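re: that chain from earlier
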Amino acid sequence: MKSYIKSLIDNALSTFTEITEAPEYIIEQPKDASHGDLSTNVAMLLSRMLKKNPRQIAQDFITRFEINADYISKVEIAGPGFINFKLTNAWVQDQLTEITSQGASFGKTKTFDGKKVTESNGEAFQYSGETLELLKQEKTNLKIKTDNEIINRELNLYFKFALIAMDSWTVNTAEIVKLSLENQNKLQKELAQLIGINQEAVSKRLKRAYFEEIQELNLLYREKIDTLIQ
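^ sequence. v structure.
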């Protein structure tokens, strides 16, 4: 999402004929969640060059943004000239669905032996199609199906409990979970530096996400799947 917002800003910058050099602006999460999901300081950095009030510059930017309503629900000006972006609930839900649907394979590269995916006709191919349909029918985000009904019932019950927490994740919570999964060898302090917040904020977000409990579930999931493979 940051790359999308960066493209909005860069495209808007290109329409200002009086700007001779683009500033090194940042896009970060506001410390106050009521200020939106992401924020940029680009307008304030241009105040001296354009000889305008940064809030006026921020308004000029907003009028030049070509917003995709599927991603962003609101753009507002805050404080001395911050431009704040509020993401749509639909986009957030899509990200959560992607994370939960990939389960233990999230962040890993998938490979196929066949020349075409459509050549696959084994159990995994058939079960995935059936399970995707069940996800739609049951309006849930995580489910598994194997040839072992006992394991199916057990794991799907665990998933239901996990989704009580996962379905309530905010954008900030989902982001730190994703970051933690992709950087499992990094300390919380290092994760905090990646997204411009402090370590305490990382700790609180992971706690609200029940990240440790979900990690335990992930280990149990792997153990159960290993019993099927052996």
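Residues 104-120 have pLDDT under 50 and may be disordered.
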